[in-house]
Write a structure and sequence with these properties.
Beta Polymerase, domain 2; Methane Monooxygenase Hydroxylase, Chain G, domain 1; seven-stranded mixed β-sheet; rod-shaped
């Protein structure tokens, strides 16, 4: 995940609505899948041209069109023409650096949010932009790559589990957003394990490289917060929105997603507080270790001060020093210095300096 947008400069100076893919190309060929369903039947197929969707738009059934891959500007442009989407909407779809948001265009709703995945091997959060279009009888989803977290939703459609086949496209939008938010909990659970590992490392062996790991983890939390906080406002707007595209019966389900989003935000904030405390704990541990080293060095220096004093006196080599003529003077000085050193060590231990 990048903390700052480094690719937005591609669009500098271009006219509004100009389609340029901003982001990383994550799939070779664009893939379009269609699921058309009602309470009694379901049809699932992969299509090659968006024009094949036109016959389904005239039906009363619900049609879910999923596009994997955003780099093909021609395909995105054709989708805009078929469904009469605003050029600025298409521009936002191919710009993968968008902030989560919701825009109402009367005939359809445009929603942008982030799907996230946690790479345990790299201890890194990876994000993918998900764009949703809610029409009268259809839902169009745009993803950056093939493979997603929506397979359980497709299974529910195939097996007619729950109320999803009985409800309209607004309920399908809720279901997709609910899966995205629920996946945040999975990511946070993995990040929680990382928090535990860092805490144990800090307590047992606070090495300098741990500070770098804590800093990187804090950056991941900042990015995660950047993607989740706007989602609260987005879902709240859907819950309160007075539009014919969202049934009143569906608003209560959006309220449930809103509650889950608040829980996710609270967890992220808790992790941020813990990580901030980790940095303080690391600095305190380093300071304590430094104090221990300084204490030992101070004790050693203090012991050698009187010994240096004695050696300095008898090292002056003046001609008239009576002790220089003693037969046992050298051994006496050594024994005296040894005794002073031992007595000082005993005194330091009794005072608990050592």
């Amino acid at each position: 995940m990048r903390l700052f947008n480094k690719k937005g400069s591609k669009k500098a100076g271009l006219a509004p609505g100009t389609l340029i893919h901003v982001g990383e190309r994550k799939i070779d060929n664009v893939r379009i899948r269609l699921i058309d369903y009602d309470e009694k039947r379901i049809e699932e197929r992969e299509i090659k041209s968006i024009n094949e969707c036109l016959p389904y738009m005239e039906k009363e059934s619900v049609t879910w069109i999923n596009i994997d891959g955003l780099h093909d500007i021609g395909t995105i442009s054709d989708i805009g023409k078929v469904f009469n989407l605003h050029p600025l909407v298409l521009e936002d779809i191919v710009n993968t650096e968008q902030r989560p948001k919701m825009e109402d265009f009367e005939d359809y709703l445009f929603i942008v949010l982030k799907m996230i995945h946690y790479r345990s091997d790299m201890h890194q959060v990876q994000s993918e932009q998900l764009s949703l279009i809610l029409c009268k009888n259809a839902v169009i989803s745009f993803q950056e790559r093939a493979g997603d977290i929506f397979e359980p939703v497709r299974e529910r459609l195939r097996k007619a589990k729950g109320r999803i086949r009985k409800m309209g496209p607004d309920y399908l939008i809720y279901t997709l957003m609910d899966v995205v938010v629920d996946n945040y909990f999975v990511v946070l659970e993995n990040m929680g394990e990382r928090v535990t590992e860092l805490e144990e490392s800090l307590v047992t062996d606070p090495e300098p490289n741990i500070l770098q790991s804590i800093h990187e983890f804090k950056r991941e939390l900042i990015l995660l917060r950047r993607y989740i906080w706007p989602l609260r406002e987005l879902i709240s707007s859907l819950e309160r929105k007075e539009t014919g595209l969202i049934n009143e019966k569906t608003t209560i389900f959006f309220r449930d997603v809103y509650d889950h989003t608040i829980q996710v935000i609270d967890t992220v904030e808790t992790y941020r507080d813990i990580v901030s405390g980790m940095m303080d704990l690391f600095l305190s541990s380093v300071s304590n270790r430094m104090n221990e080293v300084m204490k030992v060095l101070t004790v050693i220096a203090t012991i050698f001060i009187p010994l240096t004093f004695i050696a300095g006196i008898y090292g002056m080599n003046f001609e008239y020093m009576p002790e220089l003529g003693w037969h046992w003077g050298y051994f006496t000085a050594l024994i005296l210095m040894l005794a002073i050193g031992v007595l000082m060590v005993i005194w330091f231990k009794r005072k608990r300096f050592l």
